[in-house]
Structures are given as C-alpha cells and as structure tokens.
Amino acid sequence: MIFRFISAVALAALLGTSENITSSWAQTGPAQAVKERVQIMKSLWPEYYLDMSRAARGENTDFAAVSAKAAGASEALKKAGLLFTPGSGHDAVPESRAKPEIWSQKAEFDAALSALITETNAMGEAAKSGNVEAIKAQYAKIGKACAGCHGGPTKSGGKFRLEEL
C-alpha cells in the first residue's frame, strides 16, 4: 500500500514538472513528441512486458531480470507520459493516435498512466518474491491497467487512443 502511494506521489511530482521537461520537446515540435512517444510505446511489449508475460506463465524464472524489466518499463512510461504535450494530438499531427480526451480529461489520463506505472512497479516487487502465482496475479493487474487507455486489442482504439490508422 505504501509502495503504491509513493509511486503515485512520484508520478505526480514528475508530471507536475512536465512543463519544464517538455520545453525541449516543444522546441522541436509536436511531431517529434509523437515520434518519441510512439517509439516508447511500441518498445514496451518486446523490451519489457514480454518477459513479464513469460514469467506469469512460468516460462521465465529469472526473477531478478523480470524485476529489472518492470523498473525499465516504469521509467519508459514516465517518459512517454511527458511526451503527451498539448498540441501533439491527432488533430495537429495526423500520425498520432492520441485522442483529444487526453487533454480534455487530463486528470483521468494521468490517473490511468499512474495506475499502469504502479502496477508495473508492483510486478517488480512480485518478481523479487519469486512467487509465480503472485507474478501471474500481478500481470493480470497490469493488463487491466493497460486497458485504462487502450481498452482492448490494438485495432480497438480505446478511451484515449484512436483506432489503428
């Protein structure tokens, strides 16, 4: 419980400073922010969540590596969250799949992102325990948190994401 609170506070602090951090991206324009966040989001499955999935199925027992993957995924998600700068939605950058709701419902979007980061961090803790059942249960929570934005398979779009272009 305290771990989740600390994660939420850390994300709030990070997102609260996003105006300063994203100023460098603002100089290169919204298209660059979209390009970078798409690269991050596309990397999440093969670089991080695939190994977590394998651990949840009992196929990967290198729990230290799974814990490290969870930490890496959390950091990548934090960076991606900072790249959702105003003016980088689909209306401004047609390649973007970001819906206007990201900015019109910013608190809800930030909460969904925070939930995913929290559940991913909890996966790291579950992996440290070496308990495959705990890892499996935590991986299901990650899937639910992903659905907070995506809401289903790639082509379905979701609350904050347009259908596949």
**What is the number of independent domains?**
1
Q: What is the CATH topology descriptor?
A: Four Helix Bundle (Hemerythrin (Met), subunit A)
Instruction: Please report the distance between the alpha carbons of the first and last residues.
Output: 39 Å
- Main sheet: strands, sense, barrel: none
Considering DSSP H and I runs of 4 or more, what fraction of the residues is helical?
55-70%
Cα gyration radius (Å): 16 Å
Structural class by SSE content: mainly alpha
Enumerate the spans where pLDDT stays under 50 for 5 or more consecutive residues: 1-23
The share of residues in extended strands comes to under 5%
At the fourth level of CATH, the homologous superfamily is: Cytochrome c/b562
- Sum up the overall morphology in one term: elongated
Assign the CATH class. Mainly Alpha
Number of strands: 0
Order of helices and strands: HHHHHHHH
- CATH architecture call: Up-down Bundle
Topology:
Elements: H1 2-16, H2 18-21, H3 23-28, H4 30-56, H5 63-82, H6 101-104, H7 106-129, H8 132-146
Task: Describe the structure in your own words.
- With 165 residues, this protein is mostly helical.
- The protein has one domain (2-156): Cytochrome c/b562 (Four Helix Bundle (Hemerythrin (Met), subunit A), Up-down Bundle), CATH 1.20.120.
- It contains eight helices and no strands.
- It has helices spanning 2-16, 18-21, 23-28, 30-56, 63-82, 101-104, 106-129, 132-146.
- Helix 5 packs antiparallel against helix 7.
- The protein is elongated and about 45 Å long.
- It starts with a helix and ends in a 19-residue tail after the last helix.
- Mean pLDDT is 85; it is low at 1-23.
